[in-house]
């Protein structure tokens, strides 16, 4: 870039690092200027939590968590048996967590999470919608086939000999 001769303050930043400003960088006429800047890495912090069913049962939910920030994205999955997850991120950096159940019938939820020093816990509860097909849910009562044998053989064919007469044991 073409710049005017003079002194400038130069700020460098990169995801996962502290921004750093160097003051008084001299730009000379007709010469290339190089300024090396070493950015300190931000400390890491573990965010963990549980994704649960919001119907009141509190069951664990197998879910995908999309973690995004400017210049960064990753996906983590919960443990299908416990709903637990853990992800290591940079402290004091705002991320968006978008939680999507891997079985239909739950609404997706998103919120901002900024890992504190030393890490933290972020639990999510997913709301159940009317189309939920997750185990333990049924939109209609379950119908189980049954047959009353007191009035006859029903739809079953009887063959062979038996010691049973309708209504009364014979032997």
Overview of the structural elements:
By secondary structure, the protein is an all-beta fold. It is 0% helix and 39% strand. The protein is built from no helices and 12 strands. The strands form 4 sheets. Strands 3, 6, 9 and 10 form a 4-stranded mixed beta sheet that branches. It is elongated and about 110 Å long.
Structural class determined from secondary elements: mainly beta
State the shape: elongated
- Detail the poorly predicted runs: none
Overall average pLDDT: 85
Radius of gyration: 32 Å
Largest sheet: 4 strands, mixed
- The percentage of residues in β strands lies in 35-45%
**What is the end-to-end distance?**
106 Å
The overall strand count is: 12
Percent helix, as a range, is under 10%
Written as H for each helix and E for each strand, in order along the chain, the element string is EEEEEEEEEEEE
Treating each run of at least 4 consecutive H or I residues as one helix, how many helices?
A: 0
Distinctive features:
mainly beta; four-stranded antiparallel sheet; 12 strands; 39% strand; elongated
What is this structure, in a nutshell?
The protein is mostly beta strands. It is built from no helices and 12 strands.
Task: Give the topology.
Elements: E1 6-12, E2 20-27, E3 44-53, E4 63-69, E5 72-77, E6 84-90, E7 95-101, E8 109-113, E9 120-121, E10 124-126, E11 164-165, E12 168-169
Parallel strand pairs: 3-9, 3-10
Antiparallel strand pairs: 1-2, 3-6, 4-5, 4-7, 7-8, 11-12
